Structure formats: C-alpha cells, structure tokens
Amino acid sequence: MRSTASIMHLDLDAFFASVEQRDKPSLRGRPVIVGGIGPRGVVATASYEARVHGVRSAMRTAEARARCPHAAFLGGRFDAYREASRIVMERLREESELIEPLSLDEAFVDLAADPDFDPGEVERIVAGIRADIADLTGGLTASVGIASSKLMAKIASEINKPDGVFIVQPGTEADVLGPMQATAIPGVGPATAERLRRVGILTVEDLRSPSEDELTRLLGQSSGRSLHRMARADDDRPVMSSRETKSVSVEDTFEQDISDRVQLESIIERMARSVSGRLRKNGLSGRTVTLKMRHHDFETHTRSSTLPNPTDNARILAATARGLLAGEDISNGLRLLGVGVSGLADWVQDDLFAADEDDDVEDEPIEQSLIRPTRWYPGMDVHHDSHGDGWVWGSGLGRVTVRFETRWTPPGPVHTFRAEDPALGAGHTGTFEA
C-alpha cells in the first residue's frame, strides 16, 4: 500500500438508468429499469427508486415487474451510454495519465501520476472532478472512494453511495475494513459468505482470525490466500493504463447465484452483443470464444471453442458460448459469468453462406434517418416530422405511443401513431436482448 490516499475509484451512480432519467424528464424521480424487456429479459440497471423495491441487476425482468410494476421498463440506448462514458473518461484523463477503466461507468485513477499531486488537496480535486462530470454530462452523479490501494478505494466508493465521497486516510485501512461484513471484500458473494458463516465468520475482523492455511482449506488455495491478504487491506496492485488489446470480454458477478439455464443463456446473449459491439468499434474480430463460470463454491472454470475463421458476429458468439454452457453442471448455481473473444485479427471471415437476417445489428450505429425499425421498443429515441424528438412509451397491436420530450425540455405530451406512420422514424440507439 502507499503512504498517501492517492488512488481514486469513481463509479457513476445507476448509470444506464440515470442517463435515461436525464434524457426523459417525465421519468426523473421515478423508478426506471433498463435491460431486456421481453419474457426472457434480464435487468441491466435499476434506478435507486426501483432498488428500494428489491429490484437488482441480473434479476429476471419478469420478477422485476412483479416487485415494481409501476416502474418504467426501457430497452436501453447504447449510444447514449457510450457517449456519457466517453465524456467522463476524458475528464479523468485530464487529471491523470494513469486511468484504468473497468467498464463504461467505473474506473481507477492514479492521482499521484501527476508530479504536482498534493495529498492535502485530495478533497478539492475530487470535488472538482465530480462537479465537472455533473456539468459535462447534464447532471450525472458519481460516487468516489480515495485510498492508498485499489481494494480500499473500491470499497470506499460504496460507503456513501449514491453521490458521495469517502476518503480512507493512510494507516486507517484495517480499522475501516474490520467492522464491515465479509461481503464487502470483492469476490465474497452469497455462497462464499455462507461457507464463512458456517464457521462463525461474519465480519472482516472475523476473517482475520483463521490462518492462511485454514482459509485455504476452507475456500481453496487461490481464494484463501487472496482473502487472507485482503482482510488485512494488503493490496499493492498498480493502476494499469490502457494497453494493447489481446482479448475482448464481458463478465458479471451476480448478487445471488443463478441456476436457471434459460436465464443464463439470456445473459450470455446480452454479453455476446456487448462483445460484438466492442469488436466492431475497434475493427477487430476473433476466433476463440471463451465462457468463464464461477460456481457457487467459488471454483472458477473456463471453456473455450475455436472457430474456423475470425468473426465479430454476435449471433455466432452467443451460439458458441451457449454451446459451452450446455456441457456444464449448473444445478448449484453460478455466481459469475463471462463471455470473451481472443485470437484477435483486424479482419473478418464468417461463413459466406450463413444467413444474416438474424445478425445482431442493433449494437451497430444506425444513421439518423426516418427509416422505420422492424421493432419499436420502450425507451428508444424517435423523431416525428411534426412533433419533433421523443421516445417510445409503448407499442403493440400495430401502434406506437410516443412521449415527445428531450433532456432539454420539460415533460412533454404523449401521442399514439400507426406503427407504419411514414412521419415517424427511429433515432440513434441500440438495445439489450429482449
């Protein structure tokens, strides 16, 4: 660990949902749930107004509807999220040349990379960053943790969430961490927490009592050693700046273990879309598809399959990853799932005779035009020749209901049109798997 609190972890609050509330004035202060909106859909992000009803990420959308039926369920707009993320990351790069993005909505920043960094100015620096982010993004908020290590910075960013800051002063790491539940340590999910509970370990302080050998026998070699160190706030990992891409992957740790194969397949499809979009954005393709699975007992397995030719096709990636899942025993549940592609190339050679009508084109940029989409989904941006810009409130039975408002207007009126109305066109968006 360092002698100064100079590592920052910044996490945008309920990111996807917050972007939707920003851009849709009528949804501000209301529960908003973003993700798959169909019967096999999965929640990607829930606003804090929805979380109080028990809605969480990776939950089935059907369950989320039962818990919070009055919420707005939206299909997601990747372009808007990527643009907001770009603005935030650019602001962070102004503060330091060493930033380590973890996803669209969070990153580590090494403040000490600036030779003029003054530890006494941390509060002022953080206040300036958060104020700039709110101003540049139109009101998005971020929670920030500052500490002498990445572990403590990430934990600290959760303490005053949402829209808060917590600074762990050097020398107080063990004291701050000790009273917390063991689940505060990244990687300690419900299954591991239950195994610890059975031997009387509830808090991080409790976790310091067993020896490293005892934890290893209980949790396995890798997990036991890691937790023995992290329970003592022993973490010297550096902030790693961007480096040459050798693989592209997406993974998610679930708040509760998932054993439903249909739900896991739906998550795989969503992840394949995300990986495909990132490959295409960077002009890359890959041959080896890898599925990462962490089981209920924290044992982690990876399964890989190498394709005949490089691809960036989401349909092919999803089908391959689902095939890898098919051979696994998931009866006791998975706590983490990931989809990745390696063996990268800067060219694509899919099967020339493969049908392309089912390709996942929704993650690709769509030119702003008045071309009518094949499917209207709640939340998508639209434009009407007479009424201007708005978003889809709902659709069905050959009709589309639109609320005409934007982030720069007050809540607007609602109108219903025929789905084939030539005056109504789609905006520039992408969706989650429905």
Structural class, please?
Answer: alpha+beta
Largest sheet: 5 strands, mixed
Q: With helices defined by DSSP (H or I, 4 residues minimum), what is the helix count?
A: 13
Give the overall shape. Answer: globular
User: What is the terminal separation in angstroms?
Assistant: 44 Å
Reading side by side through the largest sheet, how are the strands ordered? 5-6-1-7-8
What is the count of β-strands? 17
DSSP helix fraction: 25-40%
Sketch the topology as an H/E string, one letter per element. Answer: EHEEHHEHEEHEHEHHHHHEHEEHEEEEEE
Q: Kindly state the mean pLDDT as a whole number?
A: 86
- How much strand? 25-35%
Unreliable residue stretches = 348-374
Radius of gyration from the alpha-carbon trace, in angstroms: 23 Å
Summarize the structure.
The chain has 434 residues and is an alpha+beta fold.
Structure write-up:
Helix content is 31%, strand content 25%. The chain has helices at residues 15-23, 48-51, 61-67, 78-95, 122-137, 150-159, 173-177, 190-197, 204-207, 212-219, 221-230, 261-281, 314-326, and strands spanning 7-12, 32-35, 43-46, 72-74, 99-103, 106-110, 142-147, 165-167, 247-258, 285-295, 300-311, 334-345, 381-384, 388-396, 399-403, 414-418, 424-426. α4 (78-95) runs antiparallel to α5 and α10 packs across α11. It is globular, with a radius of gyration of 23 Å. Residues 348-374 have low confidence and may be disordered.
